[in-house]
Design a protein that fits this description.
The complex is a heterodimer of chains A (91) and B (378). Chain A is an alpha+beta fold. Chain A is built from 3 helices and 5 strands. The mean pLDDT of chain A is 94. With 378 residues, chain B is mostly beta strands. In chain B, the strands form 7 sheets. In chain B, strands 3-2-1-28 form a 4-stranded antiparallel beta sheet, with no helix packed on it. In chain B, strands 4-5-6-7 form a 4-stranded antiparallel beta sheet, with no helix packed on it. Chain B has a 4-stranded antiparallel beta sheet with strand order 8-9-10-11, with no helix packed on it. The chains are: A alpha+beta (91), B mainly beta (378).
Chain lengths: 91, 378
Amino acid sequence: MTDAPKVKVLIASPLLSYTGADEVEARGATLGALLEDLDARYPGIRFRMVDEQDQLRRHMRFFVNGEIVKSLSHLIKPGDEVGIVQALSGG
Amino acid sequence: MARKAKQSRSGTVLLVATRKGAWIYKSDAARKTWRSIGPHFLGHIIQHMMLDPRDGKTLLAAASTGHLGPTIFRSTDMGKSWKEAKQPPAFKKQEGGRTVNHTFWLTPAHKNEPNVWYAGTSPQGLFRSEDGGITWNEFSSVNDDKQYREWMGQEQDGTPDGPKMHSVIVDPRDAQHIYFAMSGGGVHETVDGGKRWAPLIDGMEVVGGFDPKTVTFHDPHCVRMCPSNPDRLYQQNHCGIYRLDRPGKVWKRIGKSMPAKVGDVGFPMVVHPRDDERCWVLPMDGQTVWPRTSVEGKPAIYSTGNGGKSWTRLDVGLPKKEAWWTVKRQAFAADRGASVGLYFGTTSGELWASRNEGKAWTCIARHLPEIYAVETAG
């Protein structure tokens, strides 16, 4: 894990109760590992985004460098920027 | 069998769970004036909030949001501060494994098992915590039992809000004796602490044309055990109101004595804390596409004082017309006052109270979000 890149992560507002900041850093060679690292820093945050079958929750969206990512195995490179947002809708 | 109220009263506390957060209401000793404390978790979907009667201060709240996964929040100071559970209810990871959408029901366990709680989820799952709600694990084999999984059905078999496990009831005389109900999937019982479960559906009716022997067709909406007589259960079902006197195993449809134009369809049911002959229901419109509104827009409570032989309409103070709300299965509760206080929350965000066992009603809060659950505490 220590060799994995530490990258900037933008946090959706509903998760600020965990991080206290809308921008944090986390380390991980994959999106999955990065979310594990986030959970170690901010306990409980991962389960709000990823279910017990390791599926990204239906209405959560993950972006890496502005591109949507739908797999926990997506590789994270040094300098990447990860964005976590809620799916937008009306009503 | 009616027993006398013993306790002196210091007011009632209501735990109100809504689609957009939770509120705590505290009354004066006379239950005439109410003070609101909240919102807690504004914007969270709170399915249920319960006080641990064993310590009188631990609250659990089952929460999720439209986007974020489900969790449990825990307070040990009656809601002044909250901490999230370290391990909320979740099914085990496995091929084809299920995902908890939300925790729907919370039940403190037996008085001799301090810190033990049960939770029912959507989709149907039974969970247990042994540390006051901090960590939760699947309880017994029911979640993965092949037969139970068949009775629970698939997502397609559930209602739009998801199939639910609810009415988890622990016998106050025996911690090993537990009931639960599933919408859909029937009422079930264990007498050995969850090693084995058995359906308890005889006498319950199902939608016309289907076989009542098929467990999965049964849709109990709310099951209550009489505190004064744990051998007596009442049930509000998709198909009527029932009573079961143990050790009997056949439910008796007591809703047949309701007025025909009102019918005996509804969701919530409340039992008297000291009189096992008395309970209350709130019928709804269950015709055609199931409007789930009050019948004809004229809400009323119906009470029986003789175990369901006859029912009395109680609507003094309630809107006389054009009130198209209803009350969900967890949103009707009783306190333990000498004259029992009754409380319900509506789908339109109104909180109603009666200080005289339903004879007259007062609206104590309006404009709340859709109310999912009302429980009394203290």
